[in-house]
Amino acid sequence: MKTLLRQAADARIADFGMDTITLAGPLEAKLAAMKAAGFIQVMLSARDIVGHPQGVDAAVAAVRASGLRVTGFQVLRDFEGLSGHLHGYKVDIAQQMVLMARALGARVLLACSSTSRHASDDADHIARDLRQLAMLALPHGLRVAFEALSWGRHLSEVHQAWEAVARADMPNLGIGIDSYHLLATATALDLLEEIDPAKIFLVQLSDFLWQETRTPEERLETARHFRVFPGEGVHSEVLGELVRRLGAMGYRGDYSFEVFNDDYQQLPLPFVAERARASARWLAEDVLRRAVPLPGALRWGART
User: Which top-level group of life is the source organism from (predicted)?
Assistant: First the structure.
């Protein structure tokens, strides 16, 4: 029975993927390390694609050759709430992001709430811009996940992002949930009950090593340099409850480990990827505790 449970947990690791942001080195090495650790999906950073020494086409070819499924593509920043030439500029940027996401076979484009001092806080203006972004993505079969940054200028919590998405009311527009931002703002998990689970397009997971971040500046600094994998930080209980609640709500989508960590950027890729695998096992075995699937589903990469 223990062997059966372990096999089932391995199958459920297919629900979890890594973000290329987490690893150092060239794109091909990152993809190989993820695959060697047993992951079957990857969240791609635009910097890893446009920064490829042979260009974007070579990066796209490397992703396709890896055999990893592309969870999503990130990140479009500071899109909503702008006017005039600033808005026009961001529309051009968004169009290019959409085209790259399509070329990569991404399911989701991640956009995060604006930090610009030029952005309006008008709810209708924000909804109008998010609606336009979704319309840009729609012909390409792409969904847009809108995420609230914990240091966002007007939208800094997940329920605020949800209100903006609901107001925009587009079929391919939903929200992205990042556990780091929930932990940083100490957002009550009860607020997740307001969200339509069918509109959660992506969940990103990470933790950090101290109890709280008091200011937007501290949240930003921690987010970009000191994140760790789920199970490695001091918020494991809350993070585990988040994943359980999402499952109870009916979320059956992907989870991606988005771990910005300066130490991990200086360490061998296999070492970091194995830490990610250990985190996925912790979530699958100790947190989710789903029923054992039928024997035919007990294989690496099976969806349950």
Answer: Bacteria
What was the pLDDT predicted at 211?
85
The domain that contains 247 carries what CATH number? Answer: 3.20.20.150
Query: Per residue in 135-165, pLDDT tens?
Result: 999 999 999 999 999 999 999 999 999 999 9
Flag whether 187 is in a domain. Answer: yes
Q: Is residue 243 one of the residues assigned to a domain?
A: yes
Q: So what's the pLDDT on residue 296?
A: 36
Task: Write down the pLDDT at residue 10.
Answer: 57
pTM equals 0.90
Domain that holds residue 67: 16-76+100-110+132-147+172-291
What own/partner pairs with CB < 8 Å and gap ≥ 24 does 123-126 have? Answer: 123/163, 123/164, 123/167, 124/167, 125/80, 125/81, 125/83, 126/80, 126/81, 126/154, 126/155, 126/164, 126/167, 126/168
CA distances for 25 relative to 31, 45, 51, 264, 266, angstroms: 10, 13, 11, 11, 10
Place of tokens 């109870």: 248
pLDDT one-digit tens code per residue, 170-219: 999 999 999 999 999 999 999 999 999 999 999 999 999 998 887 889 99
Please list, in sequence order, all residues whose beta carbon lies within 8 angstroms of the beta carbon of residue 178, skipping any fewer than 6 positions away.
Answer: 147, 203, 204, 205, 206, 258
